[in-house]
Amino acid sequence: MDRIALLLVIAGAINWLLVGLLQLDLVAAIFGGQNSFMSRVIYTVVGLGGLWALSLLFRARGRG
Questions:
Q1: pTM here?
Q2: CA–CA dist 5, 7 (Å, integer)
């Protein structure tokens, strides 16, 4: 689950990079706009992945 969350966070970060540099929201471009059902699903899944990844900051690190 941690790796899936990390991949989602990376995908979200790349999308925000494109928004910042090129004013291109790739998710919206692929799925028919920011308000389309599929775009909202993708944004939600990426957000949930970000929340999961946030928990990684507070976990005890293993020895080794």
A1: 0.85
A2: 5
